[in-house]
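Lab notebook, bench 4. The sequencing result for the construct came back, and we need a structural model before the next group meeting so we can plan mutations. Quick request posted to the team channel:

Model the 3D structure of this chain.
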Amino acid sequence: MLALWLAGIAMVATAGVLLAPSQPAPDTGRGTEPVELGVELHTPVVAARAVPNLAGLPEASTFGTIPAAPRDATADKEPDGQLVHPTEPVPMFDQPGGAAIAVLPTTQLGSDTWVPVIAEEPGWVQVLLPSRPNGSTGWLSTQDNTLTIRSTTDRIVIDRAAFRLTLYRDHQQIGTWNVGVGTAATPTPAGRTFVLASMTDAKQKFSPVIFPLGIHSTTYSTYGGGPGTTGIHGWPTTDVFGRPSSDGCIRIPADALATFTNPSDPVPIGTPVLIR
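Done. Here's the predicted structure in token form:
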């Protein structure tokens, strides 16, 4: 469980509780390449409604709640790896040409915002969001050159029953590790999500790098003063692996964390994550 403290500038972590971001780790990685959208414009493009006041919309971040967000209808299948990044804050819509429901910021917890595409329509993409409730999605217009579009071949699959995390790249298994997951009272939430950010802080001791995900605890509405964001991070002892041992986060061994943070091949921000 990651508890993300809204005030303060330093991150202090005890017993797996993250209080605030400090310095982002690199958010680029091997396999992240520019791409073009695959939708053929065989039907008329639905224009986006003008949104004169973005400040009046909730922010699509781990701190936000978007009650009007459409829910992810295919939560048991990881996205195909297409990612988008807003070059400026952009409105999210409930459907192509529909009502604005939120604003997607350019950064999340110190890392550039990269969100996975799960559906496309001419002039539009539907993406996963990091906000509550879990499974929130929204539609972005691709008609005004405010989005950078890339793809990654990285995938992370977490099998809670087997206590296993597997990293895939270029359709090949890079590594698989025994991990710690949430207990029965504080389970790791299931569904498809993504790597929201990469964070480092020398002041905490349990993990040199922490990867918040775009999903939240289903037990805690808040935790340590923050929104109860679930994440992937290391742990200083090995007794937590291969069993339920956390408040919802995924605890990974040192060699897994080293693979995730390899300077030449880091796991990119936006990498799809499927939690079964």
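The chain has two domains: 13-27+153-275, 56-151.
Will bring this to the meeting.
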